[in-house]
Structure formats: C-alpha cells, structure tokens
UniProtKB/TrEMBL annotation:
Belongs to the methyltransferase superfamily. RsmH family. Pfam families: Methyltransf_5. Keywords: Cytoplasm, Methyltransferase, rRNA processing, S-adenosyl-L-methionine, Transferase. This is Ribosomal RNA small subunit methyltransferase H. It is found in: Cytoplasm. S-adenosyl-L-methionine binds at residues 31-33, 50, 83, 105. It is an enzyme of class 2 (transferase). GO terms for cellular component: cytoplasm. Gene3D superfamilies: Putative methyltransferase TM0872, insert domain, Vaccinia Virus protein VP39. InterPro entries: RsmH (IPR002903), SAM-dep_MeTrfase_MraW_recog (IPR023397), SAM-dependent_MTases_sf (IPR029063). It comes from the Bacteria. SUPFAM superfamilies: Putative methyltransferase TM0872, insert domain, S-adenosyl-L-methionine-dependent methyltransferases.
Length: 302
C-alpha cells in the first residue's frame, strides 16, 4: 500500500521551507511530507524522527535516494525516537541549531496498518498496538485482559470519547472470562455485542475503542503534550510549526497549546490561518484519499 501524505500542499504552504532552513518532521511515517521539505530547503538540514524502526529504515533509504537522484544539497538524517523527547533529540542531532520548519502528523501511516500490529479494526491481527513493536511492554491485549471493568470504561471514555464506554467494558470482561482476547477480531465482536439493539452509526462500532487503546498504550496524549511544550525552546525566531490531528481529543490539545504562542500569522490555501479554525482537506483530496477526511491542520509562527 502506497502511503499518501495528508494535506501536503497546505503543509508546504504553511511551513514555507526556504533555502538553508532547518526542517524537522517529528512523525516521519511514510516520508511523503519529508520528501517535499527536503526538496524545498536546498543548503539546509532535514531531521526525521519516528518511533517505528521500520519507518526509519524505509524513509532513510527513500530520502537518500531522492537526494542522490535529484542532486539536492541537503543534509538528511532520520532517527528512531519518540517525539515526547523532541527537545533532546533536536539538540543531540542538530548540534543546538534552532528549527525553522516543524511538522507533526499524528495519524497512522499506511505502512503501520500493513504491519499487522492490531491498529486496524478491519483486519484480524494480534492485539499489540505499539508503534515500537515492543511486545514485552504494555500491549492492547494486556489492557483488555488484565485491567478491571472500571478502568477500561475510563480509558474508552477519556481517550476515545466513547459514549458506550461502560457497556463495552462490561462486554469485554464477560468475554474474557470465557477466553482471553488476543486478536482484533475478538475485540471487535466484544464491542459489537455491547451496543444497544438497533444502534446504527456511520462510524465503525469499534472505532473509538481502538482509538482509545492506541492512545493509551502508546501514551500519545502525554507524548503530544511534551512535544508541544518543547516548541518555544527549539523553534527559531519566525519558525513555523504545523500539526495534523485526526480526532477531537488531540485537536483540542493542539489548539490550546498553540494559543500560548500567539495567533498564527501564516496564510494557507482555502482559508486564512488567523481565523482560528483548522485547515481541512477539500472534497477532491477526500475522494482521492478517504482516510484524510478527519484531518485537521493547525499552524503557528514563533
């Protein structure tokens, strides 16, 4: 599956990379945004960061080939790391240089869905849900099989904003008494059994449960808060930051954090960024890439 970067023209317009700029992609994923940042910052530096070692290897090879093929005079480095350590990684890898352009894309890449780590409710796979693939650490299977009903309900409500959190937690506990839940298909069935008879929604029944588990297992909310708090200390004067979120919990965190840095002063296609509303994909992009539908881009200048 080829990864399609979300809101690519809008991100490039917002970040406006220039010759000599220091650019950082804190969630390099499939490398789609990264490639354009590298192309547009000749004489500069690019640092890509990702928690997933396979993504790091893949994007390092992709960008090295791009630089060689197009004769780009850009220093490229891609490292494995969690953006919760954004400040430390930037200082270590950039030798104290400040960042001109920074991107955080908080969505799953197509490659992560392909790796059968249990992120998707549409395919049967082991219930792992870890970006770093460390099955010795906390996994989604451990959460659903070991946490008590009250804690599960809290996780589904707090992290997934699931209205039937209590019912779903109860169903999971009943099902695991019969046999442990180790696969995504088993979890989906437990969720579906919990919903009221006749309940219908345009979203998949297990979407919010899977979202909640993914955020909880990987500490994504806490990691995002740490990364956002580091921005004033790593961004250059007039530096630009762009953050793409895919659900309301993360968007609220981003919106509140960026308010601290003053109103954005960058124009972006389809609207003026200073309006305070996020930039959303247009109908053409959604038709071409349906997974972009829920994307929200917020930007700020420092």
């Amino acid at each position: 599956m080829e990864h399609t970067p979300v809101l690519l023209p809008e991100v490039i317009t917002a970040l406006n990379p220039k010759p000599g700029d220091v650019c950082v992609d804190g969630t390099v994923g499939g490398g789609g945004h990264a490639a354009e940042l590298v192309r547009r910052s000749p004489g500069g530096m690019f640092l890509g960061i990702d928690w997933n070692k396979n993504a790091v290897t893949r994007v390092r090879e992709k960008l090295t080939a791009l630089v060689d093929r197009e004769g780009l005079a850009v220093t490229v480095n891609v490292v494995q790391g969690n953006f919760s350590r954004l400040e430390d990684i930037v200082r270590e890898e950039l030798s104290g240089k400040r960042v001109d352009c920074l991107l955080l894309d908080l969505g799953l890449s197509s490659y992560e869905l392909e790796e059968k780590m249990g992120f998707s409710y549409r395919e049967d796979a082991p219930l792992i849900m870890r970006y770093d693939e460390d099955t010795a650490g906390l996994t989604a299977a451990r959460v659903v099989n070991e946490y008590d009903e009250k804690t599960l309900a809290h996780i589904f409500s707090e992290y997934g904003e699931e209205r039937f959190a209590g019912r779903i937690a109860g169903s999971i506990v009943r099902e695991r008494r019969k046999q442990p839940l180790y696969r995504t298909g088993e979890l989906v069935q437990a969720v579906e059994r919990a919903l009221p008879h006749g309940h219908h929604s345009r979203r998949h029944a297990a979407l919010r449960t899977f979202l909640a588990l993914r955020l909880f297992v990987n500490k994504e909310r806490e990691n995002l808060e740490s990364a956002l708090a580091a921005l004033p200390r790593i961004m250059a004067p007039q530096g630009r930051a762009a953050i793409i979120s895919f659900h309301s919990l993360e968007d609220r965190i981003v919106k509140q954090a960026l308010k601290l840095y003053g109103p954005p002063r960058l124009a972006a296609s389809r609207r003026e960024a200073g309006s305070g509303k996020p930039i959303r994909p247009g109908p053409k992009e959604i038709a071409r890439n349906p997974r972009s539908r829920s994307a929200k881009l917020r930007i700020a200048m420092f």
